[in-house]
TrEMBL record:
Gene3D superfamilies: Glycoprotein, Type 4 Pilin. InterPro entries: N_methyl_site, Pilin-like. It comes from the Bacteria. This is Type II secretion system protein.
């Protein structure tokens, strides 16, 4: 009888204190792994995007302040657009002003002598003209200027005679993509801002004199030049 009671007590305790089986643990871990694999990339992407937004706002503010200081110090070179064949406008003074602004950043490296690729990752392309719906990448040229500032951000002028100013808030780190960690600003005026059609682009009104500010390029949703992958919120991100 005593042996019977001991057996029942043993069975009771085993039921009371029994844990998960190995198969149950493995199934649970598998489910957790699947959920993590599905959500982690999205969380990482959102975190990086938030970092890029903050850095972009800082870059825009820094460049705008440098431009204003350059004007106050009397170093600004007057920008007079010149009409060339094909109805295109170019401004030779853009490159000179870009080089002067770099001094206000305490640049750690400048690349103004046909060596822009030493300051800017060029091989992946940054401006793209679309031909037959396919991007034709434009990398660094002998007319490209670039510099790296004290914070590690890289600044780039595709042509020393054109308005678009590019900044890579990651420096030479990936992904090096416009609309991600690369953004487009431009030399602008009150007139060009007023006539901006939202594209921020190359219409003749944007190539005016009386340059007095730095402005973001317009948002570009579709794939096009200055936004090869589409969905580049150059203006909207600054307003968030």
């Amino acid at each position: 009888f005593i042996g019977f009671l001991n057996l029942q007590f043993f069975r009771f305790n085993r039921k009371k204190y029994s844990g998960f089986t190995l198969s149950e643990v493995l199934i649970t871990l598998g489910i957790i792994g699947i959920v993590a694999a599905m959500t982690l990339p999205s969380l990482i992407g959102s975190y990086k995007e938030k970092q890029w937004k903050v850095a972009y706002k800082k870059a825009y503010s820094s460049f705008s302040q440098a431009f204003l200081r350059m004007q106050e110090d009397g170093y600004f070179v007057a920008i007079t657009p010149q009409l060339v064949s094909g109805g295109n406008y170019y401004t030779p003074a853009i490159g000179e002003n870009f080089k002067i602004i770099s001094k206000y950043f305490n640049s750690v490296k400048t690349c103004f002598d046909g060596n822009a690729d030493e300051c800017w990752v060029c091989e992946s392309g940054q401006a793209g003209k679309y031909s037959s719906s396919a991007p034709n990448w434009l990398g660094c040229t002998k007319e490209s200027y670039a510099f790296v500032d004290y914070s590690g951000m890289a600044w780039y002028l595709y042509s020393n005679q054109e308005f678009p100013i590019l900044v890579d808030v990651n420096g030479d780190k990936n992904p090096n993509k416009l609309g991600k960690d690369r953004f487009v600003l431009r030399f602008a005026s009150k007139e060009s801002i007023a006539s901006d059609d939202g594209d921020g682009g190359n219409n003749n009104a944007n190539y005016s004199g009386n340059i007095d500010r730095i402005a973001p390029w317009g948002d570009k949703i579709n794939k096009q030049r200055w936004c090869p992958d589409g969905n580049c919120l150059y203006k909207s991100w600054l307003l968030e």
